[in-house]
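=== RUN LOG ===
request id: a7f3
mode: sequence -> structure
chains: 1
length: 467
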Amino acid sequence: MAPQPGNHIAELGKVHLMGVGGVGVSAVARLLLDYGVAVSGSDAKDLPVLEGLRERGARIHIGYDPQNLGDADTVVISSIIKPGNAEYDEALRRGLKIMHRSEGLEATMRGHQQVVTIAGTHGKTTTTSLTAHMLKTASAAPSFAVGANIPSLGTNAELGRGEIFVAEADESDASFLNYRPNVIVVTNIEADHLDHYGTAEAVHQAFVEFARLLPEDGLLICCADDQGANDLARKMRAERPELRIQTYGFADHADRRLSNARALDNGRFEATIEWGSGQSHILNLAVPGEHNLLNAAAALAVGMDAGLEIEEALVALGSFAGAARRFEFKGSGNGVRVYDDYAHHPTEVDAALKAGRAVAGNGKLHVIFQPHLFSRTQEFYRQFAQALSLADSVRVLEIYPAREEPIPGVTSELIAQRIEVPSEVLTPLAAVAHAVEYAEPGDVVMTIGAGDVTELGEQIVAALSFD
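=== RESULT ===
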């Protein structure tokens, strides 16, 4: 039986979601619709995701207007909704219950026997996707909420019939502290979102507070290869010896140890994974890169805790084809393959380019990179340049500002002038033209960044095909 709506869901009444086109808020909307809640929503733009919500019966408005609230009892908002938004201000005036997106998601988690939250500076979307795909393929019928659309799942959120809820836990604004998990996966902990936290120490402390939310019989799964995640496992072992704590990775001290990672001639990637005494298996994936082997090892640890048979879990993981904007294949033309990736932190860019290198083989790797946020560029421009130097050529777009105002002296040139391979700052149109002109059969082109650079992939494929 599917989890039934408890009093906490009934008490929400009719729910209006602001910023409903965003991947996080749309996930909450889908789950509430699955529970049978009357849902309405608004967003500044008419995005493709909204049509699916309309088809499910949600009342959707484009643009923010106080009248959009209708007779809502509860309002769920995204992080970008602030005082001064006329719709938000009207909700305040009426005294409606206002919940952050994470609080709305937490409400949909209740009633599940096992809540699995997957956090980390990088890799959490893919790891959550792998875990949900594995459980669903193995007929565990999980509920899930992921920060991307997953082709194999057909959606980014769903209320399943089973007892497990798998959710991506966003650390960017510390809102993951609103969850009450039984299982926590931490893929890595690095300095990021310093516009919110201020210091790297504050980022690490937020993950400590997150781990402290686990109950006495909770399970903490940490990547042994990452210093931040490994330090968290060590700290929690000392602080809360009653917790079950597992580590995974290529490190010798990992509880689930990966080794002999290799790219196969058929385009798949695999490694040996071992644990305990005599447990040794082959982890074979359709998605490239050592970082995805790590992500799959984390998902496997969740599956083992959930009671899946090892072979069943391995087959399910091997059938995962990827998440949207995570080394997503956009197409090919004139013998050139084009991929798009959401990477927007130096560690993510490094992992994406290493995967691109593995796929390109003897071909060249051409990259179009769009920095995301002035503050992140200011903090990491040297590290971005170092990671991007793994390519054969790089074209850097202007910084995608998102929620920020410009910072004097912080431009894409800070990155481009430090890249050790041919690079320059170009407009999107010129960057596409460069890729089409210089990429040869066998090469790989990657568009990388969290902004609108993702729109260029299809343009490149079309131009290559026409050429």
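=== NOTES ===
The mean pLDDT is 91.
The chain has three domains: 7-102, 112-318, 328-466.
=== END ===
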